[in-house]
Specification:
The protein is of the alpha+beta class. It is built from ten helices and six strands, in the order ααααααααααββββββ. It has two domains: about 130 residues; about 130 residues, endopeptidase domain like (from Nostoc punctiforme) (endopeptidase fold (from Nostoc punctiforme), Alpha-Beta Complex). The chain is about 65% helix and about 10% strand. Strands 1-6-2-3-4-5 form a six-stranded antiparallel beta sheet. It starts with a helix and ends with a strand. About 30% of the residues are buried.
Length: about 375
């Protein structure tokens, strides 16, 4: 089997050598050709081709992105629940302190009565945990002083308030536990998908990995140049409009694009919101924050902000969403290109919007 593959390898290398002088374009086409051959020819050793691996890895990354957004939502909810639980616990502790103060007051009255003649019914009342039940069985309240009556009333009020606060704190802690459980599950889902993707990629040879990286780099460079051409045309148009007393750009969108460009080359890290790394919604969150507009944390919520725009009416700075589950978002850069944080192992970059299934677009603000 090895002898069957070896001549093809020599021929391919020979062809590459002969065409080397023709430049980068020919080399890139050769890479694409190799990718096509790998996809069409089933390897003799049973290993998946580079295109098969890429397809499966891209699917895993998309699933990981979906789990990442669920993780982001669960983390946000967990943080909120933790704050609520802390507030409830503080409130319960303060109420317990007040209840203890009221109990001490009752104890002082009971002690005084004991010293003056033993444990009377009034002293027994002052020490009971349920004063009202004692009232129903005796007529002790009629024989109590005004201060004693106030002490009993205050104790009962503090007792009920403390119980209410304890119940609220227990409910918040239960909610926190549920949020933490969801957070843990989504984190495990992300890690499982990424681990599976790494295993798939590990099956590629060093040559295949380099070829795959070169193809992605070529696509990124083409997207960058297309976006730059669109930016130049847009600036020329804006200058022309300004000369006529008008303008075509919003100040917010300009700040969004400026921020996004400064993040180019920073790594994708799931759950990250900058400044050193981002996931997809973390990047859009930071970009629009730089323009003074706070977006929700997840793609699931970001898709509902602002004004909906059609694909044909998008402008630089608009948010563009992908996949049926709205699990990915980018910042439209013009001319069919976007800036986005794509996936693990990649960096914030330009890319054509046609590489993923379009869901919708909106314009925050």
């Amino acid at each position: 089997m090895a002898s069957h593959r070896k001549p093809r390898t020599r021929i391919l290398k020979s062809a590459t050598t002969m065409r080397g002088a023709l430049g980068v374009t020919t080399a890139a086409l050769a890479s694409v050709s190799l990718l096509s051959q790998s996809a069409q020819a089933a390897p003799d050793d049973g290993k998946p081709s580079i295109s098969e691996v890429k397809k499966k890895v891209d699917k895993l990354y998309q699933q990981a992105e979906s789990s990442t957004q669920k993780y982001n939502a669960a983390k946000e909810k967990t943080d909120e629940q933790r704050e609520k639980a802390d507030r409830s616990l503080d409130a319960a502790a303060k109420r317990t302190d007040k209840l203890n103060d009221a109990r001490r007051t009752l104890g002082n009255y009971a002690t005084a009565q004991y010293r003056n003649g033993g444990m009377s019914e009034t002293a027994t009342l002052l020490l009971t945990e349920e004063p009202q039940q004692f009232f129903e069985q005796t007529r002790v309240l009629d024989r109590m002083t005004g201060r004693q009556k106030l002490a009993v009333t205050d104790y009962e009020r503090q007792q009920k308030a403390a119980e209410t606060k304890r119940k609220a704190a227990t409910e918040e802690l239960d909610s926190l536990a549920a949020s933490q459980k969801a957070l843990k599950k989504n984190k495990q889902d992300v890690q499982a998908k990424l681990s599976e993707a790494r295993k798939m990629l590990s099956k590629l040879t060093a040559e295949q990995k380099a070829r795959l990286a070169a193809i992605e780099k070529k696509k990124e460079e083409a997207a960058r140049k297309a976006a730059e051409r669109a930016e130049k045309a847009r600036q020329d148009e804006a200058g022309s409009e300004a000369g006529k007393g008008g303008a075509t750009d919003s100040a917010a969108a300009a700040k969004v694009m400026s921020f996004a460009k400064k993040q180019l080359g920073k790594p994708y890290v799931w759950g990250a919101t900058g400044p050193g790394s981002f996931d997809c919604s973390g990047l859009t969150l930071g970009a629009w924050k730089s323009a003074g507009i706070t977006l929700p944390r997840t793609t699931f919520d970001q898709v509902n902000v602002g004004t909906k725009v059609s694909k044909s009416q998008m402008k630089p700075g608009d948010l563009i969403f992908f996949f049926d589950d709205v699990s990915h978002v980018g910042i439209y850069a013009g001319n069919g290109q976007m800036i986005h944080a794509p996936k693990p192992g990649a960096e914030v970059r330009y890319e054509t919007i046609e590489n993923m299934p379009f869901h919708s677009a909106n314009r925050p603000g």
